[in-house]
């Protein structure tokens, strides 16, 4: 099969299109013929060796944890899917090697759900990791109807999905973004504010009594700014900074979860959630996708077209 892989830890220029063996299929796994693979910052961080202390890597290493595709074959203990089923998945395993930037991927059944009919292949490929991160973040802080939440980097891959999920829950969303993305946030149902110096004052102008919950999807001083405008300074969550726990907040590292992924697909099919795709590139040009992801300037998701 064709796959994009790294021979050793490296960056975009080290990604190589290779012919590699078809992945082995375990009893509780599903072989997926990949239509598209979502690109996430963790892909190039794993590729660069930044997660080496917590995640073993084996080479050649095929990056990618997000997938949308068609079931090719199932292991003997898989009863949830059959050949021909359209699926999405957050295919994170306990080590890095056989990722989703490939024509075929063997995915543990626990990582997959049925593809939402409302999304095309590219949109579907961009949903799993970012969508699960957003969904699990909002659930961790128990965001509900009538609450006001602050979403940092609200126009990004995770933030744009968190904004929509919060709105679907009946919450009011104040979202930070550059001015060029303010109209985009309004379309998602958020009230935009420009990030940078004076952010706390701009948030207070919109919510004089403070916000109920805040989500750091960008890093930097987002946690500290959030604590200035929160009614309860402990009700802040970061996916960037584990040190948030020392300040009384919550840290989240997304987990594969088939039920959560199904809930996201249901929201999409109900017309309450969509995935904005900023850029799609062919498999052979995955390096371009990594460069854009590393720039931090993508609005919505970046995907790799595989077939």
From TrEMBL:
Pfam families per UniProt: ADH_N, ADH_zinc_N_2
Superkingdom of origin: Bacteria
Enoyl reductase (ER) domain mapped to chain residues: 10-304
InterPro entries registered for this protein in UniProt: ADH-like_N, ER, GroES-like_sf, NAD(P)-bd_dom_sf, YIM1/Zinc_Alcohol_DH_Fams
Name listed for the protein in its UniProt record: NADP-dependent oxidoreductase
Source organism: Streptomyces macrosporus
Lineage: Bacteria, Bacillati, Actinomycetota, Actinomycetes, Kitasatosporales
């Amino acid at each position: 099969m064709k796959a994009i892989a790294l021979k050793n830890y490296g960056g975009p220029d080290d990604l190589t299109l290779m012919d590699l063996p078809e992945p082995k299929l375990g009893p509780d796994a599903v072989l997926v013929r990949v239509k598209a693979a979502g690109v996430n910052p963790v892909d190039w961080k794993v590729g660069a060796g930044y997660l080496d202390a917590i995640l073993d890597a084996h080479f050649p290493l095929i990056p990618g944890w997000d997938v949308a595709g068609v079931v090719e074959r199932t292991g003997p203990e898989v009863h949830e899917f059959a050949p021909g089923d359209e699926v999405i998945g957050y295919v994170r395993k306990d080590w890095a090697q056989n990722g989703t930037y490939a024509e075929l991927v063997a995915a543990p059944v626990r990582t997959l759900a049925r593809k939402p009919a409302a999304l095309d292949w590219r949109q579907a490929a961009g949903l799993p990791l970012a969508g699960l991160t957003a969904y699990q973040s909002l659930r961790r802080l128990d965001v509900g109807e009538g609450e006001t939440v602050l979403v940092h980097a609200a126009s990004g891959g995770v933030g744009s999905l968190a904004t929509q999920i919060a709105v679907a829950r009946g919450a009011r969303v104040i979202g930070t973004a550059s001015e060029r993305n303010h109209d985009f946030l309004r379309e998602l149902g958020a009230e935009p504010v420009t990030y940078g110096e004076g952010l706390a004052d701009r948030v207070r102008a919109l919510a004089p009594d403070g916000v109920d919950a805040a989500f750091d999807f960008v890093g930097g001083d987002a946690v500290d700014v959030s604590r200035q405008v929160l009614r309860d300074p402990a009700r802040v969550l970061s996916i960037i900074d584990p040190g948030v726990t020392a300040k009384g907040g919550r840290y989240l590292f997304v987990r594969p979860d088939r039920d959560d992924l199904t809930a996201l697909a249901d929201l999409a099919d109900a017309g309450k959630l969509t995935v904005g795709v900023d850029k799609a590139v062919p498999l052979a040009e995955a390096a371009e996708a990594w460069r854009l992801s590393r720039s931090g300037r993508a609005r919505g998701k970046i995907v790799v077209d595989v077939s």
